[in-house]
């Protein structure tokens, strides 16, 4: 796998522990309903260590995080909170500490696999490559 391992468009395929996780991180109930089985399309542009990570939600809302591996970046959570984080690359996985959860993302078997952990609750989201 070369430098551009993450570049692509991925559509939500399935997840595990969604409800437990979003309650743990304190997402409001309207956002919980909105996000459940949401066909989020994640678009990743990787240029070496520079990433643009965009999530397109049904209904036209998008969230974009732009970051460089190893440097502090301004980020936004699922719930729209702004924060600063240093995104790392560990063993081919992107690793970031969000305010109330630890997040990893990797390409595995051609799919985008994202794992968020908070207070021992592990939320896994899998997205299939569509472009």
Automatic annotation (TrEMBL):
Keywords: Cytoplasm, Lipid-binding, Transport
SUPFAM superfamilies xrefs: Lipocalins
Annotated ranges, domain Cytosolic fatty-acid binding proteins: 8-25
Single Gene Ontology MF annotation: lipid binding
Subcellular location per the Swiss-Prot or TrEMBL entry: Cytoplasm
Record-level GO cellular component terms: cytoplasm
PROSITE patterns for this protein: FABP (PS00214)
Origin superkingdom: Eukaryota
InterPro entries the UniProt entry points to: Calycin, Fatty_acid-bd, ILBP
Family the entry assigns: Belongs to the calycin superfamily. Fatty-acid binding protein (FABP) family.
Protein name, UniProt field: FABP6 protein
Organism the protein comes from: Podargus strigoides
Lineage: Eukaryota, Metazoa, Chordata, Craniata, Vertebrata
Gene: Fabp6
